[in-house]
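Methods — Computational structure assignment.
A single polypeptide chain was analysed. Its primary sequence is given first, followed by the predicted tertiary structure written as structure tokens.
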Amino acid sequence: MSKTVLSICIVACLLQSCQVGYTLQSRWPKRRTWHDERNYDSKPVKKGYVVAANHDSIAGLVKLLHPWAVPILPEGKNNEKDLVKFKLEDIKTIGVFDDTLTNKQTTYVNINYKSTLWRLVAKKGNIGIYDNYYPATNYDAYCGKTILVNGTEKIKLFTWLGYVLRLGNTKPLLLKFITSRYGTVFNKEDFKSKEEIFTYIISKENEKVQSKSTTISSGKSNHDFKQ
């Protein structure tokens, strides 16, 4: 394929993506009664769904306003009166599709922490890693918080100050966390991406939890035997 043809294909894909975004945006009813946010009409509209705290779910168009209140326009609806508005305490999960051409999805979860939703970065079993990136107009900036949720524990992988001093380069901070928590030392070249680091942390944390669980079970068994 020539460079010219490739360039034409790339431009066509970009135009198609823009058209998709515009189409979704144009389907969202203009504001009449939702007055708690500036620039409401220009905020991003995505295909997605909301799973409520009571496990009910609604699919349709989601407007990412901010992490603590999300309106959704159910499928087949097009009027403002049809909007269903969720507050943070009513949300369990939000799934947002990056576009209408793929199934790639970003998931935001209410983990009852810091009065916001958290983006799921990695998960295995009951252990997950989340960050506070939320692509809403007033909150587009990555705020520098990434946490490991381990049962009832919520553990910072690095501090906000560390994030700022590293100018947003979190890889050294994640490697420092690994050394501190698991006693293993790596160089930045040992991982190709942050995703690989997250996978390693999730794996080690599962091992840590399993080992702790085994130790507790063993201690109880020995206690029962002595009795």
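Note: The mean pLDDT is 79.
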